[in-house]
Amino acid sequence: MISAPSGAGKSSLVSALLIQEPAIGLSVSCTTRAARPGETDGEQYRFVSQDQFEALKAQDQLLEWAQVHGNYYGTPRDRIDEALEAGKDIILEIDWQGARQVRRLFPQAISIFILPPSIAALQDRLQQRGQDPEDVITRRIGAASEEISHAPEFEYVIINQEFSVALAELAQIVHTARFRYSSQCARHQALFASFGLTA
User: Domain 2-194: which CATH class?
Assistant: First the structure.
């Protein structure tokens, strides 16, 4: 699970990691917010209506959901279940509320929080991104302190000052996590079973 305040570089880091590590799956969240320029349905998000989102909730098809900046976001269960059954890594880009919900269901999940080097740098990045009007940027900056206050709930924290360094740190966490007992057991079930070992 990777979380960050808006503009900290979470999506860019995840995209770069997936290029380096194509075997890692990405859980595509659904959202009721409108697509930004350059976003494609099914890639960055699954864009759904309020009614569609409510239906997914009612049918227990969301692993977690939250309301953020006036829009709803949620993680559909389908791809998560498929990845876990196959013993594959999958990344969830979610906010701290969603991470808290997922942690209750999957306490073994690795959680990573991306911090900007400063609030000023965060504001600069949001403005340079050019995807949101000024009032939305102001609202996101206002929410950043609240979001950052939840960083202690995460196992790992990466400060995204230099992108290449932050990417290397993210990759290092992923590589190290693969050697945990539960991860190795899921990947090498037959071998572990031959030793009489179970998850």
Answer: alpha beta
